[in-house]
Amino acid sequence: MATSYANTGGTGNRTAIITVTVTGGFSGSPSVLVNGDLVTNNIWFSGTTAIQFEFTEFKKIIDEAKFYQQLTTSHGTWKWQGSDNGSTWTDIGGTFTLGGVTVQTFTTLGGNTAEYKYYRLLLVSGATSTAPYIYEFEFKTEDGAAIVTVPQVAQVVVETAVALDPADTVIAQMVTEVATLAAAAGIVQAQLVVEVARLNPASGVDVAQMVIEVASPFRPGETAIMIFD
Length: 229
Ligand SMILES: [Ca+2]
Prior knowledge:
Strand 11 and strand 12 form a beta hairpin. The protein contains no helices and 13 strands. Strands 1-2-8-4-5 form a 5-stranded antiparallel β-sheet, with no helix packed on it. Strands 3, 6, 7 and 9 form a 4-stranded antiparallel β-sheet that branches. The protein has a 4-stranded antiparallel β-sheet with strand order 10-13-12-11, with no helix packed on it. The chain is globular. It is an all-beta fold. The chain has 2 domains: 18-145, Jelly Rolls (Sandwich), CATH 2.60.120.260; 153-215, no CATH class. It binds calcium ion.
């Protein structure tokens, strides 16, 4: 895979996979900067000093980006940075004037081959202007490692007393499902085991136990997301 604006996270409405955080001032919801809308006049910089993009599914290699605004206003001198924890940052490329055109292509990212979970634009000097409406950021990108925060073994036990028919001949039911998530990244393999057992059938007390177990080669310190539907 090569970097492309057509890859996931590059263009369009990406509010579900990119969390935008703005430092300093800003007129509205920062998520508007990655919602795919390049024309609506509803937000503007207001003392903005940093714009952070957190990718929530995969780390990203980004080697070019675009910025869209209403006017050709300039907003001071900035630089791109990358980070995996949102606190320790590595400069990517040199400084540049933000704006000056309505569609700006950031070529200072051109030398980047590293993958990061966080990217941010950081104000180096000068200041933003409140004059133009701000529209969007797009990224020439490709996926890096999957970002999955899961413990090595997670177990959820749901125990429920249910009104099973005492004459019910079903004593136990087991469903085993194996799901492979993001296998292409070589990172995440999940095994989901759902077991429903009728316990203590002789006593006439109908009790069901459901065990959902996720065992996987997830990396230590990661946490599980479980979706029940
Ligand atoms: Ca937008």
